[in-house]
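In this section we walk through a basic example: taking a raw amino acid sequence and producing a predicted 3D structure, encoded as discrete structure tokens. The instruction is simple. Fold the sequence below.
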Amino acid sequence: MGLVLSSLASNAAAAPEFVLSLAITSILILFVPWKANHKPLDALLNSADSKKDTLTKTWREQKISELTFVGVACAILASIVTGAISWPSDTSRPVPPWITMAAWYSSLILGLTAVSSAMQQSLTLYRLGCYEDCLPRLRAILGREHRRADGSTFWTVRWSQMVVWQVPVMLLNFAILLFVGGVVGMLRDRAMRAVKAGVGLESDDVKIVVVVGSFAGFAFVSYVLGMLFLYYQTFQNAI
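The resulting token sequence is shown next.
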């Protein structure tokens, strides 16, 4: 019995450290696309001269495709959020709590900002294509050249560029999380009202919260695991 209690005590003491570690890991996973953007940029800047143009051209084309996808995804998200924001106009439904409306409006703002940012970056890449020295000019934007004591040169990625080119994707991620958080907040508020009214587990709102909460937890774990395994190798090398 003593061993069991000792084991439980040690596990309880380690629980806060585990929760803190899990929270830090989740935050790092959420922001890892910024870090993951560093490796391809460093590769195209410091590759052999015969490969630089090919890698730079590939990066430019893939980035344009990525920005196009972000724009389409943000447009879909904006239509969903706009429809959700109009729910309070339906008098047959309870008014969502203020935290839900704040999350939805914030999600809409981030989504529209992501579209605007993606459009600006796409236009920049297209306009660079009008120059004869498009690829060297793009590398000069992405990185900075340095000279060693022996006269050789090397490039470093500009930190600002590493962040800027991931802004549309990250804004889209945060917009989605805010919308989902708003939905969860609304369901929780309806369940709390049912509990305060004394209806308890017999209320449909409480049952909905239990079911949705289960699937939301499953979705969150799947999302975190997907990000973890998707970026694991990059995460190990870049952080």
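Looking at the output, two observations stand out. Residues 18-234 form one domain. The first helix runs from residue 2 to 36. In the next section we compare this with other chains.
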